[in-house]
Amino acid sequence: MTVLASALDTGSASYRARREAMLARVADLDAEHARAIAGGGPKYLKRHRDRGKLTARERVELLLDPDTPFLEFSALAGYGTDFPVGGSGVTGLGVVSGTLCVISANDPTVRGGSTNPWSLKKSLRAMRIAIENRLPLINLVESGGADLPTQKEIFIPGGQVFRDLTAMSATGIPTIALVFGNSTAGGAYVPGMSDYVVMIEGRSKVFLGGPPLVKMATGEESDDESLGGAEMHARTSGLADFLAADEHDAIRIGRSIVARLNWPRPGSGRRSAPAEPALDPDELLGIVPEDLKIPFDPREVIARIVDGSRFDEFKPLYGTSLVTGWADLHGYPIGILANARGVLFSAESQKAAQFIQLANQIGVPLLFLQNTTGYMVGASYEQAGIIKHGAMMINAVSNSRVPHLTVVMGASYGAGNYGMCGRAYDPRFLFAWPSAKSAVMGPAQLAGVLSIVGRQAAAARGDSYDEAADAAMRALVEEQIEAESRSFFLSGRLYDDAVIDPRDTRAVLGLCLAAIDSGGPRGGPPGQPGPAGASRFGVFRM
After folding, report:
1. Of these four, 11, 188, 301, 346, which has the most CB atoms within 10 Å of its CB?
2. What pLDDT sits at residue 258?
3. Pairing mode, if any, of strands 196-200 and 175-184?
């Protein structure tokens, strides 16, 4: 493969300015992560510790193999809403007893670990990752069930948690529940529908309704232990498969269960030994301009994340605003599509469709590096067929059967978000840099369109146009769209799996490729190829 050379001038003023701007955003990201780590705050954290309990993150850390990474998902869930940042739980990807697993832990310092609309979305996303990549799922359970004031938003869709747990078991994906405290109502069904259940003597309480509810419903007087204690479930109901002495013992038992799963280890699909990039990943901080209208060369990014900075470019002289080619990342072969100048033209769309077909032919995952303002508009481009060529690219992305990974580095506007495998196109994993923005179009463009429509409507009515009101409207719309298009806001609504420090991109993608690999040569459904020679795409409008 060709080793990419760099034209990045790390001594220039522009590089230093870009780096400082990105570092400021990374600092903002760290501050939001700190809010998530704080959980319910000092008061509830102290109360939790006074009860002799580990925090959700401490439980996760003890469960993981020592000195192995943990890729956290949806850490900003709930950002910009009335709910605490973090979605009252911790989810992510980590190695337990040598096996890559998805881990989901309730945070009982946030309203007793109860489920709110964002924690539900977060849990469902973690389960989707486990299902798509065929990874064991470990639930660290301590939940008061539904957050009752928001039950209208979580009761009906929340049933999917239980459906997915049973569906995972039916397809042979192990599900494990370690119960650390009260698990009430909907929280009780998580262990009830898991393959393996560990409870802690004197600590775990699992019941559909606690003593007050039972008293109201039936008039029966009962206590926690007889109604749903760990001892009762281990000796009488049979719900508990293992009775642990304390939290550390429960985690030990959980690790032992995973060790006995006889589950495939990641790494078998590697084509070569991993090799560090020849160029310094720290320099990723100074590549994306603060003004996303200024283009940058994505080869500078590719050279700092792929093995040995080696990249074989496909069609380098055709459709040059989209870079496509082959590389290895942590030893795994990948195909890469990366926006070079933002706009997608007909040639780029056709090039992308062909490249995606080739990746499907050889069963290689695709990595989309997004920085796009969308498909080109204008009379000459419409006449040249930009709609049908853009549709060709979107068709190829929609029906591609190899696993997709997406990283939004800069702009992600319009249908370019779709063609470059945005969230609606179900990439296995999607991450954003702090510099990322996504919307129908840029704030100024959107406000300008509304202004033009308003002017035309006034002219049609024969009215004069209020320029002062127009200026105020444009300023208000630009401010709103700017805020709603930023990566933190979008991550808070789970439109990505995490906002990441650009320097972590290689490590994050390596873990994701290992997850895909653990599910089989092509990562399991929906990435499985069809019968040899079968058509895998819709009709391309040529």
Report:
1. 301
2. 98
3. parallel
Q: Which residues pair with 370 in a beta bridge?
A: 408
Positive or negative, the CA dihedral 445, 446, 450, 451 is: negative
| Cβ atoms of residues 118 and 94 within 8 Å | no
Retrieve residue 473's tokens: 């409207």
pTM: 0.92
Cis peptide before 84 (omega within 30 of 0): no
Among 218, 25, 190, residue whose Cα is nearest residue 120 = 190
Would you say 479 and 396 are in contact if contact means Cβ atoms under 8 Å apart? no
529, 380 in Cβ contact below 8 A?
no
**Three-state DSSP class for residue 366:** strand
The whole-angstrom separation of Cα 116 and Cα 145 is 9
Q: How many CB atoms lie within 10 A of CB 49?
A: 13
Which of 507, 519, 523, 528 is CA-nearest to residue 265?
A: 519
Report how far apart, in Å, the C-alpha atoms of 378 and of each of 174, 345, 383 are.
53, 11, 9
In the chain, which stretches have pLDDT less than 70? Answer: 266-268, 520-535, 541-542
CA 332 – CA 271 distance, rounded (Å): 6
Residue 115 tokens read as 């489920």
Contact at 8 Å (CB) between 212 and 256? no
pLDDT of residue 153: 87
Distance in angstroms between the alpha carbons of the first and the last residue of the chain: 32
